[in-house]
């Protein structure tokens, strides 16, 4: 028997186990090799990309490193009004900088400064990772002091310019610089170069400006302050933000302690030193610079955004649009009590003055009691707008896209926005019923505005209109989209507001507001920064909005009046929530923000007042602090308009003035018998003019027919009858006016019986009343014979006259009610906050039945008819109350 060939079962199992054991090791090796390959490819690709970027790096010259190029700012007249950069820079040699200054700077900015070759590999890796995860923007730090010196010398410091290419070029130039310069030279160049807030450059200059001492005498707390300011000089300025400056300074001190540069005792002494100890008052030149500080900040922003140049170091000539005369007056108004009583301590203000036709920024007011350079600029900060947004978000689009007239009727009533449980309220917590769009805007009614915004208009129409005016939609709410409350509240800066309203002033054209018209570089290259002008809306929209807003300015002439200068404007107020009022202990009439934006044919001016924090205070009518923006507006607009030709707006051909009958909806032309008291003249877009005549007053009635009279001698009764009068309008009621010997009775039926009628020849006439008018009469006579016997007549039964009396009572009541509905309400509205009464005598806008307004009402603005009716300037409403209720605040 032959032996079976092969391996045993035991050996087979051992072989299988051995093979299975080697498989994971094989795959692991393959994965490691793949990762190494990918890593090498990344290194090679990164190296190739770095080489490519480095090959395009600019040349770094000695002049760049030491350069003292100053930038000159030129006003609209061509005169230099400010020099930036080189004007205020002192150089110190390496041996003048104390060791404590070097230690402070390296501790907080570059702890491996003395060891690296110009770049920090860990920092570069972090920056590269940030580039990948943040869509092409460098967000991580990692720059060495050498790289920062390169950036200050040849690159822009704007965050938008911190790209991977720029970082690669910085790194390459830093490597080159480290080969050419010693560490001591690099540190000295850097300390002489860095910005130290305001117009101060270099630590040596800062030592003189801040502490009036040479840089060699700096103490630990002073050196730590300057080292900390390098990251964000204006933010950490001890003049601008002392609390933030101390926090940053103390951080530097703690790092110095950790690095062993100072002892615990030295650190504690530096911590305990007040941030303002040793600080000197700012110089006269600084005080003069404060006048143009808000404008300068805008200039720097524009040049930084629109060019790749650094105004602080590039040696530019910047041609600006500043009106120095206006700018000085703006500064004086905001920084003194000579022109405006600010009433409360801590009240802040921001304003923007823009040329209506060009968009040029004439002047900016960044705040009150300005003490630091390049601090807060409230002219460009975003604030809640209140009702100043209504022409931009609601009424402008309604005219532009729906071609609504200024007469367009809206019902002011209790209202809930469709699809929500939100119910906006008016400032007076009342409703006025059917009113015109003019009255809704002028009287700042929230409910009709919300109806237009949320029901009549499409959201894309509103977005298009606002975008055409340079208003960022994502800025309007926390949601980044338009919300129902944007009908009457939003978020804008005074600069955005002034430039948007300027489009109403100039016939519908929008130009992005700009402070800089052109920049000339050191080598003579001219860069034009003038923005394009676009037709943002139709001329009819601009004119009709202006015509309505002229009524607002007229109503507030006591506070914003400019004499005979034509102007238009709108108020705005925001509210605290109930929780905020309770938490802060403020009265119910307190508000956080108050606005006034107005314009002439020359200028548009937006003014905001309030507090930097809600905890700092509030505005109210009680002390008239809510009137401050109007008084600021009046003072400044009067000043800048004094030498100008101030024309009125000319009505374009696209707008027609039409007289219609009050209360008709849709608008109808008056009939031949419409009383003059029921006429109102409003503005309509060409092609949307009413053609149908009103039936209310305009119908001619015919003579009634079938009139007959007979005397029933047996019952001593006069019986009068006639044919029924038929009207074309089934909804209209007809009444009959029956006169018997000049005694008139109004009836609704076609027969009348009189007991014990007068004797003799009795004259009977009949006419018809309908559509609030009376037609021609017809008449008959009847002979009633027989002696009158008082005794006999007393014994005769009488017809029940109660029904007749009731009918007459109803008719008389109805006539009185109709009359009241069509007569102006002459009730006086009292504003107890202002301590003054203002009656609305025959105001065209008050033709509809009106309710008395709340005594603390806000925008008691009465619409006026500028085309056909005289405005009674004695009937102005002093103020607008809370235009947005607590629920109406934009979340």
UniProtKB/TrEMBL annotation:
Residues 79-256 form the Glycosyl transferase family domain. The chain crosses the membrane at residues 31-53. InterPro entries: Beta-lactam/transpept-like, Glyco_trans_51, Glycosyltr_51/Transpeptidase, Lysozyme-like_dom_sf, PBP_transglycosylase, PCN-bd_Tpept. One of its GO terms (molecular function) is peptidoglycan glycosyltransferase activity. Residues 353-615 form the Penicillin-binding protein transpeptidase domain. Pfam families: Transgly, Transpeptidase. Gene3D superfamilies: Biosynthetic peptidoglycan transglycosylase-like, DD-peptidase/beta-lactamase superfamily. GO terms for biological process: cell wall organization; peptidoglycan biosynthetic process; proteolysis; regulation of cell shape. One of its GO terms (cellular component) is outer membrane-bounded periplasmic space. The lineage of its organism: Bacteria, Bacillati, Bacillota, Bacilli, Lactobacillales. SUPFAM superfamilies: beta-lactamase/transpeptidase-like (SSF56601), Lysozyme-like (SSF53955). Residues 1-20, 648-676, 774-891 are annotated as: Disordered. This is Peptidoglycan glycosyltransferase. It comes from the Bacteria. It comes from Alkalibacterium kapii. Residues 1-14, 832-843 have a biased composition (Basic and acidic residues). It catalyses: Preferential cleavage: (Ac)2-L-Lys-D-Ala-|-D-Ala. Also transpeptidation of peptidyl-alanyl moieties that are N-acyl substituents of D-alanine; [GlcNAc-(1->4)-Mur2Ac(oyl-L-Ala-gamma-D-Glu-L-Lys-D-Ala-D-Ala)](n)-di-trans,octa-cis-undecaprenyl diphosphate + beta-D-GlcNAc-(1->4)-Mur2Ac(oyl-L-Ala-gamma-D-Glu-L-Lys-D-Ala-D-Ala)-di-trans,octa-cis-undecaprenyl diphosphate = [GlcNAc-(1->4)-Mur2Ac(oyl-L-Ala-gamma-D-Glu-L-Lys-D-Ala-D-Ala)](n+1)-di-trans,octa-cis-undecaprenyl diphosphate + di-trans,octa-cis-undecaprenyl diphosphate + H(+). In the C-terminal section; belongs to the transpeptidase family. In the N-terminal section; belongs to the glycosyltransferase 51 family. Residues 801-821, 881-891 have a biased composition (Acidic residues). Residues 862-875 have a biased composition (Low complexity). Keywords: Carboxypeptidase, Cell shape, Cell wall biogenesis/degradation, Glycosyltransferase, Hydrolase, Membrane, Multifunctional enzyme, Peptidoglycan synthesis, Protease, Transferase, Transmembrane, Transmembrane helix.
């Amino acid at each position: 028997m032959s032996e079976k060939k092969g391996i045993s079962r035991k050996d087979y199992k051992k072989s299988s186990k051995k093979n299975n054991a080697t498989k994971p090791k094989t795959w692991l090796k393959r994965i490691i090799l793949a990762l190494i390959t990918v890593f090498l490819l990344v290194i090679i690709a990164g190296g190739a990309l770095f080489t490519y970027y480095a090959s395009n790096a600019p040349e770094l010259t000695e002049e760049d490193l030491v350069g003292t190029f100053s930038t000159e700012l030129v006003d609209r007249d061509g005169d230099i009004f400010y020099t930036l950069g080189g004007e205020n820079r002192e150089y110190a040699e390496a041996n003048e900088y104390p060791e404590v200054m070097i230690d402070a700077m390296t501790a907080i900015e570059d702890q491996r400064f003395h060891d690296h070759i110009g770049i920090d590999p860990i920092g570069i890796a972090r920056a590269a990772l940030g580039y990948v995860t943040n869509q092409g923007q460098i967000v991580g730090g990692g720059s060495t002091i050498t790289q920062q010196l390169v950036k200050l010398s040849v690159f822009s410091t704007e965050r938008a310019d911190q790209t991977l290419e720029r970082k690669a070029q910085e790194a390459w130039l830093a490597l080159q610089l480290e080969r050419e310069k010693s560490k001591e030279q690099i540190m000295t160049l850097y300390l002489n170069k860095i910005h130290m807030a305001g117009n101060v450059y270099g630590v040596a200059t800062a030592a003189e400006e801040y502490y009036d001492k040479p840089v060699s005498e700096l103490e630990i707390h002073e050196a730590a302050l300057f080292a900390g300011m390098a990251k964000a000089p204006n933010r950490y300025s001890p003049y601008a933000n002392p609390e933030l400056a101390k926090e940053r300074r103390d951080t530097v001190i703690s790092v110095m302690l950790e690095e062993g540069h100072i002892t615990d005792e030295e650190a504690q002494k530096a911590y305990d030193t007040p941030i303002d100890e040793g600080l000197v008052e700012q110089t006269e030149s600084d005080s003069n610079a404060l006048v143009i500080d808000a404008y300068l900040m805008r200039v720097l922003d524009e040049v930084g955004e629109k060019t790749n140049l650094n105004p602080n170091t590039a040696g530019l000539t910047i041609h600006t649009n500043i009106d120095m005369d206006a700018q000085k007056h703006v500064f004086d108004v905001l920084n003194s009590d000579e022109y405006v009583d600010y009433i409360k301590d801590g009240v802040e203000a921001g304003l923007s003055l823009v040329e209506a036709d060009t968009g040029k920024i004439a002047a900016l007011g960044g705040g009150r009691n300005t003490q630091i350079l390049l601090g807060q600029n409230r002219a460009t900060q975003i604030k809640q707008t209140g009702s100043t947004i209504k022409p931009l978000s609601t009424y402008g689009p309604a005219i532009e896209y729906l071609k609504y007239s200024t007469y367009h009727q809206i019902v002011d009533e209790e209202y809930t926005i469709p699809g929500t449980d939100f119910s906006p309220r008016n400032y007076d917590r009342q409703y006025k019923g059917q009113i015109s769009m003019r009255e809704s805007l002028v009287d700042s009614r929230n409910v009709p505005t919300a109806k237009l915004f949320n029901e009549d208009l499409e959201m894309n129409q509103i977005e298009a209109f606002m975008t055409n005016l340079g208003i960022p939609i994502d800025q309007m709410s926390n949601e980044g989209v338009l919300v129902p409350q944007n009908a009457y509240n939003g978020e804008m800066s005074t600069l955005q507001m002034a430039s948007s309203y300027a489009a109403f002033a100039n016939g519908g054209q929008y130009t992005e507001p700009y402070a800089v018209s052109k920049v000339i570089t050191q080598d003579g290259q001219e860069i034009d920064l003038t923005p394009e002008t676009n037709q943002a809306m139709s001329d009819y929209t601009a004119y009709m909005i202006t015509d309505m807003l002229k009524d607002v300015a007229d109503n507030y002439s006591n506070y914003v009046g400019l004499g005979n200068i034509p102007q238009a404007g709108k108020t705005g107020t925001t509210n605290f929530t109930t929780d905020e009022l309770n938490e802060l202990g403020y009265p119910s009439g307190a508000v956080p923000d108050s606005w006034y934006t107005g314009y002439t044919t020359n200028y548009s001016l937006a003014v905001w007042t309030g507090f930097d924090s809600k905890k700092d205070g509030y505005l109210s009518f009680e002390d008239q602090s809510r009137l401050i923006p109007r008084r600021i507006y009046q003072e400044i607009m009067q000043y800048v308009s004094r030498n100008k030709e101030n024309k009125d707006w000319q009505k374009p051909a696209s707008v027609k003035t039409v007289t219609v009958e009050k209360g008709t909806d849709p608008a109808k032309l008056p009939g031949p018998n419409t009383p003059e008291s029921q006429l109102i003249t409003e503005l309509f877009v060409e092609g949307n003019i009413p053609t149908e005549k009103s039936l209310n007053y305009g119908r001619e009635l015919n003579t009634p027919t079938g009139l007959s009279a007979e005397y029933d001698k047996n019952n001593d009764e006069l019986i009068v009858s006639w044919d029924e009068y038929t009207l074309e309008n089934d909804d209209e009621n007809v009444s009959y006016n029956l006169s018997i010997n000049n005694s008139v009775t109004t009836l609704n039926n076609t027969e009348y019986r009189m007991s014990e009628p007068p004797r003799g020849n009795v004259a009977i006439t009949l006419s018809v009343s309908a559509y609030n008018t009376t037609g021609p009469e017809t008449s008959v006579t009847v002979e009633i014979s027989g002696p009158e016997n008082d005794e006999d007549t007393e014994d005769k039964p009488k017809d029940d006259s109660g029904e007749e009396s009731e009918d007459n009572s109803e008719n008389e009541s109805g006539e009185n009610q109709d009359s009241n509905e069509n007569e102006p309400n002459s009730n006086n509205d009292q504003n107890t906050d202002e301590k003054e009464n203002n009656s609305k005598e025959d105001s065209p806008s008050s033709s509809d039945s009106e309710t008395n307004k709340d005594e603390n009402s806000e925008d008691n603005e009465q619409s006026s008819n500028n085309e056909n009716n005289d405005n009674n300037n004695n009937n102005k409403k002093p103020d607008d109350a809370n235009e947005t209720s607590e629920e109406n605040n934009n979340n």
